[in-house]
Amino acid sequence: MKRLVKNGKIVTPEKTFKGDILIDDGIIKDIAPHIKSDAEVIDASGLFVLHGGVDVHTHLNLKLGDRQVGDGFYEGMRAAAFGGTTTIVDHPEGGPKGCSLHHQPDYYKKLLLSEAVIDYGIHGIFQRADEDILNEIPELISKGVTSMKAYLTYDDMLTNSDIDKILNKMKHSGGITAFHAEDDTTIKYLRDKYGKEGKLAPIYHAKSRPAESEALAIQNILDIAGDAPVYIVHLSTRLGLEVIKKARLDGKTVYAETCPQYLLLDESYYEREDGIKYIMAPPLRTKEDTDALWKAVINGDIDVIATDHCSFSCADKIKFGQGDFRKVPGGAPGVETRLPLIFSEGVINGRISINRFVELVAEKPAQIMGMYPKKGCIKIGADADIVLWDAELTKTISVKELHQKCDYTPYEGMEVTGWPRTVILKGEIIVNKDELLIEKGFGEYINRNRKAIGA
Ligand code: DUC
Ligand code: ZN
Questions:
Q1: Shortest-distance ligand to the CA of residue 330
Q2: Sign (positive/negative) of CA torsion 349, 350, 354, 356?
Q3: Cα separation, 117 vs 403, whole angstroms
Q4: Domain extent at residue 397
Q5: Which ligand 1 atom sits nearest the alpha carbon of residue 312?
Q6: Are 229 and 255 in contact (CB under 8 A)?
Q7: Is 114 inside any structural domain?
Q8: Residue 309 C-alpha to ligand 2 middle, in angstroms?
Q9: Residue 399 maps to which CATH number?
Q10: Does 206 fall in a domain?
Q11: 33, 143, 347, 420 - which has most CB atoms within 10 Å?
């Protein structure tokens, strides 16, 4: 089916220009000021034409023991689509003890086949680093899993020797290693200390995971990394950022991802009556941290804005953890609100250009995670993943209006300007105003390949 997106203002990281986009068979076939065609016309007059959002940090369908997030694959992807995101890369939970490296990506792939409404990749997860696991790395990468995550805290935490082996093997296999960087020793000590002192209110969640623990963990990784590429997920502190900046001056390849919650919310939220909702790891930080992260978003030190969408419900947070921050399932939803929030706070508030906006939320994540130029850009030959963006539409965020299943949003009541009107994936209109127009199974697995890019 041929479609012609007409009269919009097309936005790329380099420029904004008026033009038409011709789509055939799901692919962008032409971009020009005026295209004559018998294709079905999608009128984009008065709207910006952006590439669909690429969110490379979600946890849909996550299950940790007896705790399950609210948004399964379908609900999370539906929410993403309504928020203008057409591609995600999901982080699975750890698999059964002793399982292979392939286990979780294979398992997720199977589940997603019949559930997906947008396109997706799947990250790998390192739960140990023995010879078998290391030997699996090249094969898993050849199947499109070009990025794998290691946690420096939680149960499947790795030693420095493990990290060294993983980074080396990933580098030689063309993969990138993502790190959840929080120092486990510090956190365990402080959680225990506050527990013994009966300091169990949500604010102690933040105090038990201090900024120094993030900086220390990042420093540790980068000391080991040599010239292997490193991707730091959900950077939340000024101190962590300083470590990354210094390592870059020393020639290291390190990418930094942050998320809307670390730019827009701060630790004062833990003092509110509903402070339990904001328990996530890393925790919300100080105003000084949010200011430093915005500065890094503006000057290019932050590469990616993703979400860490992890939708444990408020009901479950209360059920499991009321009265003890250590028992609250951590995480917050955000996949639907990422683009509007960053557009509103970034572009409308004059912090960044619309061109930098698309770089942060689509192009750079697609590049780093090996999906470019199929995804992340409006170029001839790319998938026609396009959002018609209304930069004047103002809405007040309310969980009642969102399309997630999760029962709350951390951004309830915020007034936000800039929302998608129409969302197109591979040339098909998947969302128009308030309607999802495709069936489960329309979303496809992306066979990622880092060699194709210049990130
Ligand atoms: N942080 C959370 O709060 N939840 C899930 C994973 C993570 O990194
Ligand atoms: Zn995460």
A1: 1
A2: negative
A3: 13
A4: 2-50+379-406+418-436
A5: 4
A6: yes
A7: no
A8: 7
A9: 2.30.40.10
A10: no
A11: 420
